[in-house]
Amino acid sequence: xxxxxxxxxxxxxxxxxxxxxxxxxxxxxxxxxxxxxxxxxxxxxxxxxxxxxxxxxxxxxxxxxxxxxxxxxxxxxxxxxxxxxxxxxxxxxxxxxxxxxxxxxxxxxxxxxxxxxxxxxxxxxxxxxxxxxxxxxxxxxxxxxxxxxxxxxxxx
Length: 156
Description:
The protein is rod-shaped and about 125 Å long. By secondary structure, the chain is mostly helical. The chain has helices at residues 2-13, 40-49, 55-63, 69-84, 90-121. Among the domains are: 9-49; 55-120.
């Protein structure tokens, strides 16, 4: 019996619900927990009546600045998950995926330009140390070329 008395004392010490009915009457139930302003009944009804949060706003806050292709892939995967859960429309998911693919192409082009710029900075250097060279002392530059079956040499 003391438990019931203690519990009723705790309930009595809580403030009353601040919900106002249509006719202007206040709810007389104690709040659900200390620090709350509504009783458990009105807390549930307000939670159900609250507009759902925008899943794309949540996704945008998670993204930050995208600079790598794998980050865009993670974004597309989250879009697919939201579309499968019917939290966003299929049409919206398709348009955002198209934009994400455009971003992937832009990142690829940027990486290609950076690689091209890195190659342009280096001068073309050829190492000729192991390349065989003809012996110039064995070549006679005054020698007549051998005759070709299609072309006859012109006498000098």
